Structure formats: structure tokens, C-alpha cells
């Protein structure tokens, strides 16, 4: 049986010609918790953006057997919830409630189901009571928590999070770690936070200059200090 995410020979260059991903092969099976680590510019965000078709390169990316391509984007995006590195890319509504409700409404849920989804999602990131706040007048950390809630509210099969703990204070970071630890969904997390990786994610992929340079059990990868130093991780 094939895995939930199947990537074969994926390469991607930005419009200015900069190659961000080079001949990448990767499989992620249902329920796996995977960390993607690598220094600035390694290609982590570019890779996550391929999972739900925000960017498309050459090669083959499949989610639950369906190729990520224009015709399948609706279905792909209901399967893959992506939390962007910058919450300003995610939040666009006049209130927190509307931002978190947007996905469930789009999925066709009725009003009471939408309200329940919003309440549960905000509670799980410790942001309940913030429904009427204006997202673009919140702190960066608060925005990141709301951005995570917008995706949780859609209950996707795969949650792809880009730097979920960057800019968060210790309490907010703990909240996020708690949320991630208790999720049953498949998780793909790009991060510089190696202690998050150690605590929450069983498998770690190391990227460098657009390539996967290691992929294995987190404990094994994090044990090799010389390798981590070589790739700018410590
Ligand atoms: N919009 C863009 N246009 C051109 N090049 C880009 C663009 N976004 C990223 N790149 C380049 O693509 C490469 C991979 O960038 P990417 O953002 O995927 O790295 P990253 O691993 O997420 O880094 P970080 O840890 O800083 O978030 C880098 O060389 C970067 O400069
Ligand atoms: Mg990034």
C-alpha cells in the first residue's frame, strides 16, 4: 500500500532561477510525525508549499494517491492543512472568529457545526475568548496560534506546519507542543526548534541546499552532533 504522501523526483526553482528543491524522493505514511530541519534557505518551506499545491515543481507529488495538480487542488487542500511560516499569509478576516470559521464554512458545514469547530480549535491553542479580536492587531505569537487554529478547525488528515514555535513565548510554545503531541493526524513540521523535534516527532528529515541529506528516527539523527554541525543545525 502506498503512503499518504509520496514524492518522487521533485525539483523546484523559483522564477528568478534559484533552485530550491533538487530531485527529492520522500514518503510519509499515515500517522507519522515528521520533523523537517535544515539551515535557513535549505528548502523546508518550499517543500511544505508543494504538499498542498501552493507551489508546483517538476516530478510527482501525491497525497492519498492523488497527484497534486490544478484539477485536484480542492481535494488536496481538504486533506492537507498548511500553516504558513508567516501568519499574515494565513489570516485575512476582520475577526478571529471569521478566520477560524472560514475553512469549515467553505467545507459546507452548518452554522452550529462551524461554531463548535471554531470553539474547539481556539480552545486547543489556548485562544478561546479571542473570537472578536482583529487578527492584524494581534501580536506575532497570538497570530501564530490563531493561524494554527484555522487549520485545526478543518480537521485535515495531514497537518503541515512551518515554524510553529518561532516567536512564541515559553507558555505559548508549551501550548503548541501539547497540541501537537495529542494530535492523531499525520504531522509534518518544518522547524529550527530541535527540542520540539525531540519531544514530539519520531522521524526527522534533514535538508541542505534543497536536498534530503538524512532521514531516520529522531533520536538517531539528533545524536550525531558532528553531522548536525556539518549541516548548520547546532
Ligand atoms: N519567493 C522566492 N523567490 C525566490 N527565491 C526564493 C523564494 N522563497 C525562497 N527562495 C529561495 O529558495 C531557497 C529555499 O528557501 P526556503 O524558504 O524554502 O528555505 P527554508 O529552509 O524554509 O529557510 P528558513 O529556515 O529561513 O525558513 C532559498 O535559497 C531561498 O532564498
Ligand atoms: Mg522556511
Q: What fraction strand?
A: 25-35%
Major pleated sheet: 6 strands, mixed
Number of extended strands = 10
Element pattern in H and E: EEEHEEHEHHHEHEHEEHH
Evaluate the radius of gyration.
Answer: 17 Å
Stretches with pLDDT under 50, minimum 5 residues: none
Strand order of the largest sheet: 6-7-8-3-9-10
| Quaternary organization | single chain
CATH topology: Rossmann fold
Any idea how many domains?
Answer: 1
Characterise this structure:
- With 234 residues, the chain is an alpha/beta fold.
- It has a single domain (32-55, 77-230), classed as Rossmann fold (3-Layer(aba) Sandwich), CATH 3.40.50.300.
- It is built from nine helices and ten strands.
- It has helices spanning 44-51, 73-79, 96-106, 111-124, 140-152, 170-181, 194-200, 218-223, 225-230; strands at residues 5-13, 19-28, 33-37, 58-63, 66-67, 80-83, 158-162, 186-190, 203-208, 211-217.
- Strands 6-7-8-3-9-10 form a six-stranded mixed sheet, with helices on both faces. The chain has a four-stranded antiparallel sheet with strand order 2-1-4-5, covered by helices on one side.
- The relative contact order is 0.18.
- Bound molecules: adenosine-5'-triphosphate and magnesium ion.
- Adenosine-5'-triphosphate (ATP) is lined by residues 14, 16, 18, 20, 38, 40-46, 85.
Amino acid at each position: 500500500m502506498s503512503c499518504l504522501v509520496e514524492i518522487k523526483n521533485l525539483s523546484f526553482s523559483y522564477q528568478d532561477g534559484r533552485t530550491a528543491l533538487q530531485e527529492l524522493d520522500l514518503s510519509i505514511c499515515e500517522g507519522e510525525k515528521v520533523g523537517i530541519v535544515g539551515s535557513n534557505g535549505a528548502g523546508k518551506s518550499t517543500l511544505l508549499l508543494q504538499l498542498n499545491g501552493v507551489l508546483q515543481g517538476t516530478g510527482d507529488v501525491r497525497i492519498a494517491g492523488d497527484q497534486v495538480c490544478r484539477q485536484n487542488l480542492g481535494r488536496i487542500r481538504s486533506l492537507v492543512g498548511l500553516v504558513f511560516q508567516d501568519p499574515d499569509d494565513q489570516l485575512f478576516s476582520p475577526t478571529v472568529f471569521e478566520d477560524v470559521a472560514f475553512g469549515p464554512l467553505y467545507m459546507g458545514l452548518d452554522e452550529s457545526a462551524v461554531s463548535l469547530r471554531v470553539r474547539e480549535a481556539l480552545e486547543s491553542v489556548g485562544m478561546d475568548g479571542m473570537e472578536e479580536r482583529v487578527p492584524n492587531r494581534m501580536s506575532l505569537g497570538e497570530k501564530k496560534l490563531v493561524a494554527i487554529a484555522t487549520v485545526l478547525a478543518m480537521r485535515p488528515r495531514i497537518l503541515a506546519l512551518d515554524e510553529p514555535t518561532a516567536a512564541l513565548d515559553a507558555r505559548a510554545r508549551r501550548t503548541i507542543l501539547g497540541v501537537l503531541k495529542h494530535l492523531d493526524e499525520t504531522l509534518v513540521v518544518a522547524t529550527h526548534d530541535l527540542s520540539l523535534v525531540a519531544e514530539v516527532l519520531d522521524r526527522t528529515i534533514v535538508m541542505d541546499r534543497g536536498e534530503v541529506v538524512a532521514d531516520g528516527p529522531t533520536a538517531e539523527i539528533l545524536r550525531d552532533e558532528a553531522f548536525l554541525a556539518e549541516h548548520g543545525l547546532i
